[in-house]
């Protein structure tokens, strides 16, 4: 299957705390069609995020396809609670980078 | 029943983040029924609740409040400030109250103000635990009596009920301790009988002001208008607009599940929410429902002290050292353990090779031209943290490693003094739900006649 960079299809790729114990990742698509295609083939899974972030599957709390924003959201348990000794990203705002190099199946034109 | 449209002005995402004067004036021209502003968040981490300090600077908070209070007085409308001082404990409320008193004096303003506390005593939490009324907000662990004893400050997020009580008491300004973010915008609407789900969803968006518009901004004004069966959003700066995507996207922001948003006393259900673009850069939202929960729960937030911190900042440019840095840092840690008998902790943060991503994912790029190193010591008191950091810095500076060519020093130290004492370190240790019979009982209201 032909592949395309996620950064080509997404308008927004971001990470942020969802409370001090959770990290949440959002991918917002430019075109609803691309979103619906990847949703239909169920490309984004808990397993995919666990692999991308090198975390056990049990740490993935939630994976949601959110139609109103043509968005995919994955929430996971933080490696270190926000601001605790050893945390290096208090707001969780720079944890999105593994998604920037992700290749996803291309939709047939 | 048909209610007249209720207009809510939100000047900025966090009190003290600022806003353009022109946007605020545009907002006042729309004849709002309320100015709401959120001052708080747990995002800046546990320090601010622990230390009782604000994360926004006093001059910035005073500047924003001066516009807001003068605007509210000129239009004779209420003004509600949520989560005073960033974390909403007693110290933060008093700090904000002093700024308000100063503005009232300087600007000759007179108003009745309700000040609502949100502090929760350890005894109350312990009693509630014994009665089985406390449970963790997953993934926080089960709460123990030891953790409650270790906490330095505990607050609860108030729902709309205490704010409504203050408004019914004739308070034109309501200054809240820790409060569920949408409450500062939704309380008057709920008081007047608007749909609770729509009022809270509107509040969810307004508490971040123009962050939900495009281009987004944490420091600009927006207006929300609430109707019987929907609400509409508009930017008060012509350079921004709301779009269907920007508004729906905001529903994802900082949330675990965008379809279900739990809060005090119930859950917002967005599974039937509709976002429609309107002309003029406006968006209409409908279909959000509120499901009340029984029993009523409040979110508790608490922090404990984890020690004191000292750091030192340096760069490393030597390619030989860069090639064997991990082994050197391990040996330095070992030397420090031998040299200083203490239970303090030593951490190295090496920037320039995948430091930011956690858990650390193996770095596969070419070695960096230079690296940034943060040397960190955390100990039970500041003096010990200073001593450990100093020892770490001097050991690493002169550490002899195999193949070393540059024998004069290993670090490009950034400052003199090279070590920076950072003070107390805190950690979140309470993030739990508390069941209550009466949603007002934890939040005492003091009424003041300001400027009288």
Key traits:
heterodimer; A: 109 residues; alpha+beta; four-stranded antiparallel β-sheet; two-stranded antiparallel sheet; 3 helices; B: 452 residues; ten-stranded mixed β-sheet; seven-stranded antiparallel β-sheet; 13 helices; globular
Give a nutshell description of this structure.
The complex is a heterodimer of chains A (109) and B (452). By secondary structure, chain A is an alpha+beta fold. Chain A has 3 helices and 6 strands.
Mean pLDDT of chain A: 95
Let me know the number of strands of chain B: 20
* Percent of residues in beta strands of chain A: 25-35%
Q: What is the overall silhouette of chain B?
A: globular
Helices and strands of chain A, in N-to-C order?
Answer: EHEEHHEEE
- Strand content bin of chain B: 25-35%
Number of strands of chain A: 6
Description:
The complex is a heterodimer of chains A (109) and B (452). Chain A is α+β, with helices and mostly antiparallel strands and 109 residues long. Chain A has helices at residues 6-9, 32-40, 46-52; strands at residues 3-5, 10-17, 22-29, 60-66, 71-77, 103-105. A 4-stranded antiparallel β-sheet of chain A has the order 2-3-5-4. Chain A has a two-stranded antiparallel ribbon with strand order 1-6. With 452 residues, chain B is of the alpha+beta class. Helix content of chain B is 30%, strand content 28%. In chain B, the strands form 3 sheets. Chain B has a 10-stranded mixed β-sheet, sandwiched between helices. In chain B, strands 5, 6, 15, 16, 17, 18 and 19 form a 7-stranded antiparallel β-sheet that branches. In chain B, α8 runs antiparallel to α9 (196-206). The radius of gyration of chain B is 25 Å and the shape is globular. The model of chain B has no long low-confidence stretch (mean pLDDT 95). The chains are: A alpha+beta (109), B alpha+beta (452). At the A-B interface, β2, β3, β4 and β5 of A face α10, β15, β16 and β19 of B.
């Amino acid at each position: 299957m032909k592949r395309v960079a996620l950064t080509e299809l997404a308008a927004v790729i971001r990470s942020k705390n969802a409370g001090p114990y959770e990290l949440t990742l959002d991918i917002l698509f430019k075109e609803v069609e691309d979103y619906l295609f990847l949703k239909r083939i169920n490309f984004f899974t808990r397993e995919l995020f666990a692999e991308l972030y090198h975390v056990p599957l049990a740490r993935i709390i939630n994976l949601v396809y959110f139609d109103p924003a043509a968005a995919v959201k994955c929430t996971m348990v933080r490696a270190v609670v926000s601001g605790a000794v050893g945390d290096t990203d208090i707001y969780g705002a720079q944890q999105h980078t593994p998604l920037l190099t992700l290749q996803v199946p291309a939709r047939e034109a | 029943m048909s209610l007249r449209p209720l207009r809510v002005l939100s000047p900025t995402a966090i009190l003290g983040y600022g806003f353009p004067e022109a946007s605020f004036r545009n907002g006042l021209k729309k004849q709002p029924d309320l100015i709401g502003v959120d001052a708080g968040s747990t995002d800046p981490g546990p320090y601010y609740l622990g230390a009782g300090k604000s994360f926004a600077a006093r001059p910035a908070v005073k500047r924003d409040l001066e516009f807001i209070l003068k605007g509210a007085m000129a239009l004779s409308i209420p003004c509600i400030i949520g989560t005073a001082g960033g974390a909403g404990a007693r110290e933060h409320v008093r700090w904000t109250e002093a700024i308000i008193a100063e503005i009232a004096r300087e600007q000759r303003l007179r108003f009745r103000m309700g000040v609502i506390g949100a502090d929760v005593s350890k005894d109350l939490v312990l009693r509630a635990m014994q009665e089985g009324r406390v449970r963790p907000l997953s993934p926080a662990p089960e709460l123990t009596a030891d953790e409650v004893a270790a906490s330095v400050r505990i607050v609860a997020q108030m729902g709309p009920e205490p704010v409504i009580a203050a408004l019914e008491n004739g308070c034109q300004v309501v200054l809240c301790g820790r409060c569920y973010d949408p409450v500062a915008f939704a309380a008057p609407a709920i008081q007047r009988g608007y749909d609770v789900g729509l009022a809270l969803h509107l509040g969810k968006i307004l508490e971040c002001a123009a962050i939900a518009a495009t281009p987004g901004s944490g420091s600009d004004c927006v207006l929300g208008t609430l109707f019987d069966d929907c609400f509409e959003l508009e930017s008060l700066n012509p350079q921004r607009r709301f779009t269907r995507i920007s508004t729906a996207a905001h529903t994802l922001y900082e949330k675990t599940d965008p379809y279900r948003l739990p809060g005090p006393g119930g859950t917002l259900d967005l599974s039937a929410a509709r976002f429609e673009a309107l002309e003029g850069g406006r968006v209409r939202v409908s279909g959000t429902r509120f499901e009340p929960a029984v029993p009523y729960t409040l979110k508790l937030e608490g922090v404990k002290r984890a020690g004191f911190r000292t750091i030192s900042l340096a760069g490393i440019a030597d390619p030989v050292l860069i090639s064997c840095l991990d082994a050197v840092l391990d040996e330095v840690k070992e030397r420090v353990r031998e040299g200083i008998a203490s239970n303090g902790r030593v951490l190295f943060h090496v920037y320039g090779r995948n430091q930011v991503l956690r858990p650390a994912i193996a770095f596969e790029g070419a070695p960096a031209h230079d690296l940034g190193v943060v040397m960190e010591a955390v100990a039970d008191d500041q003096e010990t943290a200073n001593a450990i950091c100093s020892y770490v810095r001097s050991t690493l500076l002169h550490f002899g490693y195999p193949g070393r060519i540059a024998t004069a020093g290993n670090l490009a130290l950034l400052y003199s003094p090279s070590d920076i004492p950072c003070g107390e370190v805190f950690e979140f240790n309470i993030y739990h739900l508390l069941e209550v019979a009466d949603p007002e009982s934890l939040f005492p209201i003091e009424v003041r006649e300001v400027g009288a």
